[in-house]
């Protein structure tokens, strides 16, 4: 719909859609998925890192790369991108161009969870601090195989991060739960 080579999924904030490419974040016009101004983009700021996808935590947009995550806030600029760079952290995410991968992060209780690539592990971010939530044994599993989906799973009122390790059409489905 934009003609761009998207990395990851669309995120929405304040009536604007955001998509990532390998090195930019593009924003739609207000309340539109079909209108994208040619100057409505922002280059990734911190370093030359290959963008892998976007995530949202509250009123912040996170642009993941293979080695970094960059945080942006909405500033409603009159021209160009409505995002402003806030911070960069040295936590990356693997490529989202994988057969069957649709979701690569989830939010539970005001924390964003994702599978990190550099370093390897499962991480949680509350908007200020990143915490590693996986063990060395889980990190070893993640280092040896691809994952295909990260989502929230609910059991009797409790929520868990589910990292699906098998393709959606596989007979046996294995997941890691946090």
Task: Kindly describe this structure.
This protein has one helix spanning 136-144; strands at residues 7-13, 16-20, 24-27, 41-43, 51-57, 60-65, 69-74, 83-89, 105-108, 111-117, 120-125, 130-132, 149-155, 158-164, 175-177. It has 178 residues and is mainly beta. The longest helix is centred in the last third of the chain and has 9 residues, at 136-144.
What is the strand and helix layout of this fold?
Blueprint: E1 7-13, E2 16-20, E3 24-27, E4 41-43, E5 51-57, E6 60-65, E7 69-74, E8 83-89, E9 105-108, E10 111-117, E11 120-125, E12 130-132, H1 136-144, E13 149-155, E14 158-164, E15 175-177
Give the tags.
4-stranded antiparallel beta sheet; 1 helix; 15 strands; 178 residues; mainly beta; globular
């Amino acid at each position: 719909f934009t003609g761009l080579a998207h990395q990851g999924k669309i995120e929405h904030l304040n009536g604007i859609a955001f998509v990532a490419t390998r090195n930019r974040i593009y924003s739609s016009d207000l309340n539109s998925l079909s209108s994208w101004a040619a100057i409505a983009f922002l280059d990734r700021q911190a370093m030359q890192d290959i963008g892998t996808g976007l995530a949202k935590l509250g009123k912040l947009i996170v642009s993941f790369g293979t080695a970094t995550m960059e945080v942006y806030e909405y500033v409603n600029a009159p021209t160009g991108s409505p995002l402003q760079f806030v911070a960069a952290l040295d936590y990356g995410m693997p490529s989202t161009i994988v057969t069957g991968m649709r979701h690569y992060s989830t939010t539970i209780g005001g924390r964003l969870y994702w599978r990190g690539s550099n370093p390897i592990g499962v991480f949680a971010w509350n908007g200020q601090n990143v915490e590693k939530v996986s063990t060395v044994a889980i990190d070893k599993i993640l280092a040896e195989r691809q994952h295909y989906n990260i989502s929230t799973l609910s059991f009797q009122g409790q929520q868990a991060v589910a990292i699906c390790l098998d393709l959606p059409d596989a007979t046996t489905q294995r997941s890691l739960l946090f």
